[in-house]
Amino acid sequence: GGNAVKHGDLDESLAFPTARIDVHMGEYGFQCITCHQTDAHQIKGRAPSVSPGDLTQENQVYCTDCHSETPHADQRINEHTDSVACQTCHIPTMAKKEATKIHWDWSTAGQDIPEDTHEYLKIKGSFAYEKNLPPEYYWYNGSTSRYLKGDPINPDGPTDMNAPKGDINDSTAKIWPFKVHRGSQIYDAVYNYFLVPTTAGEGGYWSEFDWDKALRLGEENSGLKYSGEYDFATTQMFWPTTHMVSPKEDALQCVDCHSENGRLDWTALGYDGDPVKYGGRPLHPPTTQLLPQEDAQQ
């Protein structure tokens, strides 16, 4: 934990933000409860990192609680809203004032080297932080696929801890901005699942700096069998970005996505290429007026 560490779009700068940090709070004087309204202690709003269930339930906060689905004067921009979340264009960066943690490598812990809160701690390993972080973009229908204790790790790449659900063929999904936190966590090299080491207390890693001992204690506490062999594997955790909305003047422009070096990886999202050239996703009929290349460069 700590200021700005986890979410990237929630930190102490939102207490008294400028409009550039958050236009709702900085320019229009919104408070948290302006959007997160509460009835009988049922607080409106859900986040997949902390809330059970999904984001499609009734007590979610939506941009359309206040804004229209088609708020733009240019109909070509309105045509995006079936497939692109408002936040995707209107939150071009996060961690605008305070850097957020984007990487944590437990495998380097235990070394007697100089410590720095934002770079290395003996008890936790190595970190990386970034300020003014551009989001990463994924299809998202409001639900996630969670890694549960004892699940096998992904042998072919990073293991997703809470992967956003949805794809180009899901009519309920939109392209959303995410902060992605990447890490290196300890797992059982025989059983191929993540382990739960004991860190604090007698015999814990933070006092003994002995992974094997910490894992044997963790086996007793977690119920996960430990083979005696361990290694470290990469992980990814996803936070949908929905705070720190920028003024409209700072929103992404056409060329930010529809250009050779644009933000979106069209093929990774399931397109044949830039929809300006290849058309939108198959769930929707082709737009009658694709954005001309000359307009995209303006």
Explain this structure to me?
It is a single chain. The protein is α+β, with helices and mostly antiparallel strands. 15% of the residues lie in helices and 19% in strands. It contains nine helices and eleven strands. It has helices at residues 23-26, 32-35, 75-78, 86-90, 205-208, 211-222, 254-257, 275-278, 293-296, and strands spanning 38-39, 42-43, 100-105, 120-121, 125-130, 136-140, 144-146, 159-160, 162-164, 174-188, 230-240. β1 and β2 (42-43) form a beta hairpin. It is globular and about 65 Å long. It starts with 22 loop residues before the first helix and ends with a helix. Residues 285-298 have low confidence and may be disordered.
Give the topology, please:
Elements: H1 23-26, H2 32-35, E1 38-39, E2 42-43, H3 75-78, H4 86-90, E3 100-105, E4 120-121, E5 125-130, E6 136-140, E7 144-146, E8 159-160, E9 162-164, E10 174-188, H5 205-208, H6 211-222, E11 230-240, H7 254-257, H8 275-278, H9 293-296
Parallel strand pairs: 3-10, 8-11
Antiparallel strand pairs: 1-2, 3-5, 4-5, 6-10, 7-9, 10-11
